[in-house]
Amino acid sequence: MSRKEEQGPGVAAVDLVDRLAAHRTLAGAPRAELAWLAEHGRLAHYVAGGVVTSSMGAVDGLYLVLSGRLSITVNRGAGPRKAMEWREGDVTGLLPYSRLTFTPGDVVAEESTEVLIVDARDLRELTRECHDVTSRLVHVMLDRARHFTSTDLHDEKMLSLGRLAAGLAHELNNPASALVRGAKDLTGRLMDVERASRALGASVPAPQLALVDRVTGICLSSVVSTVRSPIEQVDREDALYQWLEAHGADVSAAPPLAESAVTFEDLDALAGALGPDALDAALRSVAATCVMRRLGSEMEIAALRIHGLVSAIKGFTYMDHATVPSPVDVAQGLTDTLAVLSGKARARSAHVTVHVDPDLPRVDGYGGELNQVWSNLIDNALDAVPAEGRVDILAARDGASVVVRVIDSGHGIPADIRERIFDPFFTTKPLGQGTGLGLDLVQRLVRRHDGAVDVDSRPGRTEFRVTLPAGATPQSGKR
User: Fold this and answer.
1) Which helix (H) or strand (E) holds 169?
2) Structural domain for 269, as ranges
């Protein structure tokens, strides 16, 4: 057994009142009120390792710790973690005026522990009969709320940081790999160009070099813009292999020429003006130059992608901004957030659209916190939609307010749990995949900005709507 009841209600023995008088939280309270607690409470003893209240179990009353030690362990998606401890002289459980219904984790006795339990049904009478004790317990409740709020925000931010880091690593991997590949290939191609140029200069007279330059120009101008289907590309490459082979030229030039807009008429003109040796040198020079241009273009695109991602991360976190309220560009915040979550959207094949009014005003507040709101809402929407589902994000002015709507095409939120989705620790996701803190954090951060968040849901359409007071500064300027 995890606990053994030692004495039921009515144990108003003098020694128990004396123990309550020495209790750190209750010391100095009127003796009559302590006697009321002793009379209405029941003593309970928990052995080491005994579970006082299981995770998401109902809290049955007020717990006055007389000896020993209790702790609560919560799992918010990153493994179990001890969130708080209560020792001799502490108070836990259900407190007067508290809205606590379920415990967010397992409350366990760390050692042999004795508590005095006042049943939940007696708390209303406690507030009427024990004013001094009630005041002390309300202060305990406020301190506990501040503690859990700070740890909740910290945990959610750490989980968001983990998601952000994972998404950034995934997004940076592709352009970084392209840069590495391009740099390696470019080194080898530089040698090819050098050899081809020497051979070309030795075998092609000056008048014919103009024709070689013309073909090279066609190749360079079309290396990126030419678009063909995979079948068309394979057919073109095969045809070039045959042409090069028939003209005694190096067939390794076929792939780069196949990606260009150089025509067979251009190649025939070059072959008619040059001898076999000169033609081979000219084609190798053209192909090597085209490959170098393509590699340079790919490396430039990859570097710009990395630069864009880093800029989006800086914008998302407001890492170079002071932590004071300032005009916030909502449109830019939504753009930065989507850049961070683009990998997840692609992984789910989700269609994401953004519509922002061009004259949307700024809002006054903390940009990093508002981006946390957008991140949680959009991340939840991507989790909710099926493969190839839709997520629509709209931002518009509504009178003196800015309204941001995140709409997904998922299955919707069942009516029987809709009222609980903003409760701390409530989640419908599998264990380890959701903390139950995301929407609670959204609501707290929106209220911190004097705004409101509402939800409307039915099968196939769920809309979260955030309303914030509009600031005085238009959004046309950038941060």
Assistant:
1) helix 131-203
2) 165-307
